[in-house]
Each structure stands twice: as structure tokens, then as C-alpha cells.
Amino acid sequence: MINDQPLADIVAALRSGAVTAEALTTSAVERHRTTGANLNAYKHWDESKALAQARAADAARDAGRDFGPLHGIPISVKDLYGVPGWPTFAGTKHRLPARFEAAGPVVQACLDQMGVVMGKTHTVELAFGGVGTNQHWGTPRNPWSPTVHRVPGGSSAGAGVSLCEGSALLALGTDTAGSVRIPASATGNVALKTTIGRWSTAGIVPLSPTLDTAGILTRTASDLAIAFAAIDPHIERATVLEPLPLDHLRLYAPGAPFWTDCSPGVAERTREAIDELTRRGAAPTDVTLPDLAPLQALFEQGALTAVQLYHFLRHQLPDAMRALDENVRLRLTDAGALPAAEYLDRRDRMAQAAVAANAALDDGALLVSPTVAITPPTLDELAPPGAYRRHNLLMLRNTSMPSLLGLCAVTVPVGLDEAGMPVGLQLAARGGDDVRLVRAALAVERALGTDRLRA
Q1: Domain assignments of the chain as residue spans, ordered by start
Q2: Picking from 50-54, 237-241, 439-443, which range would have the lowest pLDDT averaged per residue?
Q3: N or C: which end of the chain has fewer CB within 10 A?
Q4: 208 is catalytic
Q5: Which helix (H) or strand (E) holds 170?
Q6: 3-state class of 237 per DSSP?
């Protein structure tokens, strides 16, 4: 079916008239009804609205207008983004005020190209969690585990699921400490965390203004390259990104904490992928990073995120604070009592580590590691006291390091762990090297292939 083809082929088919946006959207709707019937990817789903957008895209095409690569492409949007005409809940119990429904630059870039919004995907409440659960609206099912309810990863919990079920060809998410990379890794997809500040976060409900980034999830790195060029404000929309030559990849695999406490098969698949890349021409290298142990401890204490979320809720959404998901509420308990001196000290330590890490990577080296250390847990595994916190920290651990260091990062699927669940390879580059990182992901995909997870 056309929906299963690479995004480049779908864009070409739409432009040639071989397929219509309405047909593409109809197929996406059917996938949601069948493949996605029990996956719970969406908080809000409106197929009539999506089909109306598709018909409008076709009418514009018939009139000789081409608004860009996303013209007529089905897109899912994380329910943190404002989309005109759609409610925003941000994973909370109640609908947010109307000011949170205005489109920011990322959504507007998709709408300006007449991309078709299929719906608003589930998020962890206020994006504060990497597991993907939500006590208010339920947890999407990971499509790779049809018999046991495993989590899809968070906080963009429904985003990767929407790609797997075929109801979207591009998913908009956000990433503060891993929130596009974790769900992409957990569902066998690709995702990019952009450099802080490269894409505007206006029109997105904030978690941590210091660390928040807009990001995207796609089925493949080839799809990612097209979507990135279509949205990124710093390059021409028609830019075609080519894979880096493999011998231009300089790979550094740091030690702790990235490789410790991994589930069976996670470290093995990741190392196999790195070894294959080096056999094909990528060069192992070494860099001097700042000591990551204090940074990891800082993350486990909440870094700046808990305090900034507490401040936002207190001043913008006090009613939401009184009805928080327990897993969110427990981590905000002491946030309002953090001394100002400690807050400023944490901010300075993060900034100093980021300067050192970016300087260490200024010659183009890439940090490589497992994206997520553990197999996505089942809901039952999260039930015992303390289990959620333990799993949440492990799912976020590897992705949080590039975020705290001010890097951009991508994940690509590289195999299955011993539980039969997807494993992602994380590549992180110096802040601002987003284009080069996307080209590196293309090189990895060209070398390793995509069909190992697509059978």
C-alpha cells in the first residue's frame, strides 16, 4: 500500500497525481480502525476533520499549488502542541484554557504546507515522565507486545504508536530529557531531539524552558531527513540531505552510566551495530567529556525540570496542580521548597558541563550508546511501590545526558532485545550540528538497513 512506502515516494506520488491526499488519509483512518483499534494512541481523533483537510489539500494541488513536502501528509501531534480547532489537555485531567490551542511555529510550518492533522496523541501528564503512563486517560499499548500491555515510552507516548499503526507518517513530539527518543526507541522508530533553541517551543505547553525542545518521530531516517528539512527554519525547505560517508563518522562510546543495568540484549544489539558500522568504515574515537556522575545525580534530583514545572503550574494552571497524576505529583512534592541558591548552582553546573561537552565534540565526534537501557516494562511491573520511579529513571538515564549537555541527538532502531522488543542506537552531536546529525542517521540506516525491524 502507498502508506507503507518511503515518505519520498509518497511525496512524489502526491505531486504526480498518482495518489490523492484524501486516499492517503482514508487509508490512514482505516489503519487506525483496524491495526490501531486497541492501541490508544490518540487523546483526540477526528477523522472527518482530517478528511476535510485532505480534500482541501487536493483542491489546492488541483489548482496548481504545491505548499511543500508535507502537503497532504498525515501527521499526528502530541497533545502539548496547540492546534487551532483542537483541544489541548497536555495529559491533564481537564481541558486547558484557549490560549494553549494557538499554533506555534512548528505546527504552523505543517499547517502552512497543508499537512493533514490526524489527531492529538497521548502524552504523559505535562510531559513529566519517560515511561509513557497516564492515570487520567490510560496508557497506549506498545504495538510490539500484542499479548502483554507494555508501555510505549514517554513522554510522547502516543507518537511512536501512531506511526506503527499507520495512522500518521510523521509525528510531532517534544523532548526535554528523552521524550521523542524514548518512545521512538521503544516502538522501533526514528526520532530527533533538536538543539535547544533551534526550533521554537512557542505554542507548546512547557515542562522546562531551559531544556525543552520540539522534535519529530518518523518511521525511518530517510523519512526524518525529509520532515526535518520541511520544518527546520534554518535551511531551505527543498533541501535534500544526503548520508554522510561512513568514513566521516567518528564514534565515541562512553562508559558509565550508558551501558550499566541494561536489559538482556540491549547492550549486545547496540554494540553489534557499532561494530558493524566500524567494519564498514566508521572510525572509533575518543573524547574527554566532563565527569557525568555528578550530572546523573543532578538529574535524579530533578535538575531544573521539577522546579520549573512547579513554577508554571503554580502561576498558569493551579487547578491542574490539585489533580495531578500520582507519578507526577510525587516528583513535585519538594520542588517548591528548593532554595534559590541551590537552583542557581544546579543551573551553573549544567551550563559548565554543556560548555565542556560541546568543546569536546567540536571536531564532529558523535556519542553513541543504547537509547534506552531497559526493555519497556509491563504495567504489572510498574505496580509495586517504587517500581515506577526505578523504571522511569532507567528509561530516561541515557537520553537525559545529551539533553543536560546541550547536545542534539537522534535514535535509530538496530534490532530486538531478548524480550523481542526494539532496541535503539542513540547518536548525539554538538549543539547546532542538527543537519550533520540527520546525515549521520542516514548513513547509519544505509549501512545497517531498515528491514530488520520491518518484517
Answers
A1: 2-448
A2: 237-241
A3: C
A4: no
A5: strand 170-175
A6: coil
Query: Of the listed 27, 155, 167, 185, which one is catalytic?
Result: 155
* Per-residue model confidence as pLDDT tens digits over 355-388: 999 999 988 999 999 999 999 999 999 999 999 9
Sign of CA dihedral 13, 172, 56, 225: negative
Fold of 2-448: Amidase signature (AS) enzymes (3.90.1300)
Closest CA to 330 of 306, 313, 308: 306
Instruction: Indicate if 145 belongs to the active site.
Output: no
So what's the pLDDT on residue 454? 43
CB neighbourhood size of 448 (10 A): 19
Reading the block at residue 380, the C-alpha cell is 504489572
Amino acid sitting at position 62: D
Strand 74-78 to 190-193 pairing: unpaired
Alpha carbons 112 and 105: distance in angstroms, whole number: 10
- Pairwise CA distance, residues 447 & 274, whole Å: 11
Residue length, the chain? 455
Picking from 420, 423, 407, 427, the residue whose alpha carbon sits closest to that of residue 373 is: 423
Looking at residue 183, its amino acid is P
State the catalytic residue, choosing from 27, 43, 78, 193.
Answer: 78
Q: What is d(CA 173, CA 180) in angstroms, rounded to the nearest whole number?
A: 6
Note the pLDDT of residue 453.
Answer: 52
Mean pLDDT over all residues of the chain? Answer: 96
Backbone angles phi, psi at 421, to 5 degrees: -105, 150
3-state SS, residue 29: helix
Marked catalytic residue, from 27, 179, 185, 222? 179
Answer whether 434's CB lies under 8 Å from 228's CB.
yes
Q: Yes or no: say if 368 and 407 are a contact pair by the CB < 8 Å rule.
A: no
78 is catalytic: yes
CA distance 87 to 42: 12
- Residue 50 has which C-alpha cell? 482530517
C-alpha to C-alpha distance for 251 and 78, rounded to whole angstroms: 32
- pLDDT value, residue 455: 35
Q: Are 77 and 83 in contact (CB under 8 A)?
A: yes
> Residue 424: in which H helix or E strand, if any?
strand 422-429
The distance in angstroms from the start CA to the end CA of the chain is 15
Which three cell numbers, joined as nine digits, stand for 127?
510531559
pLDDT in tens, 27-59: 999 999 999 989 999 999 999 999 999 999 999
